[in-house]
Specification:
Blueprint: E1 8-11, H1 17-28, E2 32-37, H2 41-50, E3 57-60, H3 66-80, E4 85-88, H4 106-134, E5 137-142, H5 146-149, H6 155-174, E6 179-186, H7 199-207, H8 217-229, E7 238-241
Parallel strand pairs: 1-2, 1-4, 2-3, 4-5, 5-6, 6-7
Helix pairs in contact: 1-8, 3-4, 4-6
Length: 248
């Protein structure tokens, strides 16, 4: 009933739509969850009150602040004495048409790569000793089908997710056997971001998806949970959660 009982999980960007679903799924399976946030303390604290189980906590830690991530890892070690699961969920993007090269500013390129790639790497780097000591450590990088298709909110976002998948493959090899590293790669996920997208465009994406709908945060969370509980012989892999969208 509680396959993750006694384990500790850390979810970056844990108060957002996908992050909240991952936090809830891991907590429901018995894990104690540390939810990180960048600026919205109230949202993170409100999520904490909904999680089943006890001992969960929130921690302010922007993933672009490597020194703060080390403080976070020290906090987890001091508070819980272990870390078994790291879900790298924090990410940013902004819509810029791919043909509009001047519309994608250097500032946005740097922000996207600093958060989506460097932040994930820095989080793994800070937590590596704890994850290794677990003996069954798991890192799940929340990627995107955009990293493989080159179709997404902007060119830099697609490239950052491709780089994240490359990180998964590299560290899946380098950190084995003590730590497994896997990318979970959704297509469009219904949530706050999609509320700002043209409904007709989203309807076309649904029509082009063989399974006939877009992903939900729960779909992504269920995949993370499966990796933590039953898919234990998987590492360095890119797991799609896209309803078969690339087939069309």
């Amino acid at each position: 009933m509680n396959p993750l009982s006694g384990q500790v999980a850390l979810v970056t960007g844990g108060a957002g739509g996908i992050g909240a679903a991952i936090s809830a799924a891991l907590a429901a399976a018995g894990a104690t969850v540390v939810v990180t946030y960048n600026t919205d303390a109230a949202k993170a604290t409100a999520l904490l009150a909904t999680l089943p189980g006890t001992g969960h906590t929130v921690f302010q830690a922007p993933v672009n602040d490597s020194a703060r991530l080390i403080e976070l890892a020290d906090f987890v070690a001091a508070t819980y004495g272990r870390l078994d699961i790291l879900a790298n969920n924090a990410g940013v993007t902004t819509p810029v048409p791919h043909h509009d090269l001047t519309g994608l500013s250097d500032d946005w390129i740097d922000r996207i790569f600093t958060t989506n790639w460097r932040g994930a790497f820095a989080m793994i780097r800070a937590c590596q000793p704890l994850l290794t000591a677990s003996g069954n450590g798991l890192v799940v990088n929340i990627s995107s089908v955009a990293g493989q298709t080159g179709i997404g909110s902007n060119v830099a976002y697609c490239a950052s997710k491709a780089a994240l998948d490359s990180l998964t493959r590299s560290l899946g090899r380098a950190l084995a056997p003590a730590v497994r590293v896997v990318s979970v790669s959704p297509g469009w996920v219904l949530g706050d971001y999609t509320q700002h997208i043209d409904p007709e465009y989203l309807a076309r994406q649904v029509a082009a998806t063989p399974l006939g709908r877009l992903a939900t945060p729960t779909d992504v969370a269920a995949t993370v949970l499966a990796l933590a509980t039953v898919l234990r012989f998987t590492t360095g892999a890119i797991i799609p959660v896209d309803g078969g969208r690339p087939l069309n």
